[in-house]
Please model this.
Amino acid sequence: MGQGPAVTAGPTPTGDPAGRAPPSFLPALTGVRAFAALWVMLLHLTEVTSVLLPERVARGFGLLALPGFLGVDVFFVLSGFIISYNYEARFAGAFDRARYLAFLRARLARIYPVHLVLLVALVALVRGLHVSTGDVEPARWSTGQLIESVLLIQAWVGHAGAWNSVSWSISSEWLAYLLFPAMVRAARAIARGRGLVLVATIATIAALPASWATIQKATTGLPQLLPLQIISEFLVGCVAFQLYRAGRGRAATAYPGWVLIALVTIAAVIYELGAPALWVVPLVPALILGLAYGHGRLTRIFAHPVMVYGGKISFALYMTHYLWLWLMHHFFPLATLVTASLPMRVAWVFAHAAPMPFIAAATYHIIEEPARHWLMRTRAKPAASG
Model:
């Protein structure tokens, strides 16, 4: 999460047979962020729908929504592509400490303000107003995990549920940013491969989290290894950018719409069978490349101004929606709503869901963008904002 605008001015794909420069903006790569954030939001909304909606309706909703955690994996791969597009050239040569620090500052300016404001709000609610967390894992609200959240290291040590639990993903992103110079070199080396060897390499790297999740299911007591998830998925996003820069993979990624349908459908089936839905992640680089090249109707859908705006506020939506649901559960417990009539229960589902985009938009315009501009205004703007 938090990878910033889709793509602004960037390098030319050297493999373009016409020698054309790429568009200065790829709106579909912003629009796909809206889809990813919405998928995660629908996942968490199942906590409401499973209680308030009729069983068959809730089950049908959950069939597509429950694998919504994969929205984060889409973000991770997309982030590798976008960060590479905007910053890769700065790290292609010898390591430059000043450029590295400027890069980290730009990334922190993008992800940290919203995270910090929401963390302060949670501290005020839990520690100041003593709002009941009702949590079976009190350790997630400990001072130690609060410090980890402030430092954005909670995911590194396996505390994915600390405080604002969705922030584990930006903790993971922060790790990827720190490792980005090494990622550039690794991606360039991998992208030198050809044909089926390259495809197999990308698929293998992208499937590492699924492999570990499968081992976890068969063996008790193993940790999540969240760093493995971000490193592998961010890296394949970086490799996808290398292919895009060289103009490779156009034909193989010509149908992103079908790739997305396959991704969602296979994820739903795998999840229903009880296997790790992460096995569909190797499809994500093909989806991103297809959208970057502008293939198909799906590109036009994701490039629609509504989807592009949704992509712009997607980070805010991702960061605020779970806190909103947490507050709704506190003030309007589901146990008291379940006895209402069906029309009223449906209305309560909408009452939980409908405010989320508006909260996200307000967060984006009032906190995220002003804070980013304020933090960056003391330095010259980079050639390509991220």
In short: The chain has one domain: 28-376. The longest helix spans residues 97-128. DSSP finds 18 helices and no strands in the chain.
